[in-house]
Description:
single chain; mainly alpha; two-stranded antiparallel sheet; 67% helix; 5% strand; disordered N terminus
Amino acid sequence: MAPCNSVSHKLEFIVTYFGFLALFLLIPLVVLGVLTWRDHRRGVTLPKALQNYPAWIVLVAHVIVAVVYTTPWDNYLVATAVWWYDPALVTGITIGWVPIEEYTFFILQSFLAGLWLLYLARRMKFGTGVIACAQQIRRISTLFLGLIWLVSVGLLVSEWSPGTYLALILVWALPPIMLQTVFGADILWRHRRLVVSALLPPLIYLSIADALAITAGTWTISPAQSLNIYLAGYLPLEEFIFFLITNVLVVFGMTLVLARESQARVPAVLRNQLAKIS
């Protein structure tokens, strides 16, 4: 669906990529930063169930992992024209095929998801006790994701062009998510209220922001390599799935690392090394 002229006119001031980042990511990050500082001043801390490691170390570590893991994948997408950016709307500074603004997006999105998770976690109480069928939860959830991954690989190998972007997202993102579920799907289930509350608002917010950026022409998703299914008439389905999965990676990862019950599942050697860092 083509954007109407009135919408395009209203978005003229945010069409540059850095303008998009400043408006949709920097502002909420400043708000979350102020709320975090206020909680610190008031002595509001994470519940004991999520004090396995210092929260700031866990957050920064996830931001670093996000950048390292996403960089080669995103470069491949841009190099193969799965999506592209208007050269007039970026600074022109690139690392590989990707503009510096995109790397900034990796960092800011990860901080946004992580700080929102921590803000919520400081306000929740968590139960204790043994979860029934814990191993089955881990196995079944991982098997389910594994089947989706295999289908995605098959879709990619088939070279069906409209399924390219979706397949690339799932083939790239599901392996680390499967590692998370095989390690602690039961732990995630115990903290499901936190997990769902941490996932949904950023997903909806970033999806709306992304739809506005696409409408404004900040970046473009290849019609030939996507399904051309648009949510609300503007947001490609693949973009919604991308934001869902990238937020899952951060929320699942931070929840598992912070959870005290995860500690017993980490090999003793690695646990001792992590203790020295923290």
